Amino acid sequence: MGLLQLHARTMSRLVATTILLCLWVNSGHCQQNPGFASPVASVDTIVGQPAILRCTVKNRGDARLSWVKNSIPVSMGNDILLADKNRMSLINTGRQYDLHITKTVLEDEGTYTCVIYFSSGYNSSSGDLTILVPPTVQSMTVNGQEVGQKVVVEEGTDTLFNCTATGKPVPNVIWKKLGKHGSVFFQNSTVLMSNVSRTASGRYSCLASNNVSPTHNRVVDFEVHYVPTVTPRRSEVMAVLRGRTSLKCDVDALPAATQLDWYKDNRKISLGRRYESTGGTTGTLVLELADVRDGDFGEYICRIRNSVALREASITLYEVATLPPTTPGYAELDVGSGHRLSCTCITVLWMILVTLILQ
């Protein structure tokens, strides 16, 4: 019984040793199984661009090679097995078994495995193909509404900008306000402007980037409409009878004013021979009065209206007494003599009226 156990152990060692022995060929060298000179490397490419998955083999011999994507055969030997074979080709030489994809699509992404089949088994090496996608701004909204090239809001409202973009990897989205002196950046895809003012008007850009060229942006013109402002250049104006004078109001409005009128005694002034109004919808509105008469003195109203509101300002026209005519005088003097010159003029006095309050 002991001899049988010894014989069994000896045979077991012999079989194990035989399995580990290297096969010797006629040349006298040890025959090694086919393998990889280097692992299959992962590849990143931009959608639509080519990609090359390289498989470098050593000790190839008569081994057969194949590419497999996510467990689905892509090629065997020199043959492409997929239906979309026009975009794919093989470089099948002694050491190389490379898979070329001429124009990548998103569906090409996955894990690609190069497999070497030989008589006693197989070896494999895998790498990932990643398809990158440049960013694209898909949607740009203001207060939840998709916008085109221009958006209008009223001053004092709350305004929410939002921008979404697609790409791979996921893009970073920012807002920029474009200006002559550089850009103001908002490091977020969503920007809330509370109680928006007219100074916020301008051109805004939504920019998407993900380190895949090119970046992408969309631009919108943001216009804040506001109530007109009307400010008299002077609230009181002096004029003389039969003279000329002008009344001026500084105007600011967005959108531009659709109505600019002058009123006197609650009646709209009819422009004509003695009245002329000049000035644009933004700037200075001027009323020219010629041949001033007694009925021209009093309160004037400059009134402006746009789609937001109506505003007005008043100017009072006062009469100034006509200056007396002057008569030139002459005097003949001898050299070295003295003489007194006199001039009659109007004296103007300013007086402060003080009211005493008795305790």
Automatic annotation (TrEMBL):
Single biological process term from Gene Ontology: homophilic cell adhesion via plasma membrane adhesion molecules
Keyword Kinase: no
Signal peptide as annotated in the record: 1-30
Domain Ig-like per the UniProt entry, residue ranges: 34-130, 135-221, 228-316
Gene Ontology CC entries for this record: plasma membrane
InterPro entries per the UniProt record, alphabetical: Cell_Adh-Cytoskel_Orgn, Ig-like_dom, Ig-like_dom_sf, Ig-like_fold, Ig_I-set, Ig_sub, Ig_sub2
Protein's UniProt keywords contain rRNA-binding: no
Source organism, top-level taxon: Eukaryota
Keyword line: Signal
One of the Pfam families matching this protein, by short name: I-set
Name of protein: Opioid-binding protein/cell adhesion molecule-like
UniProt gene name: LOC109469400
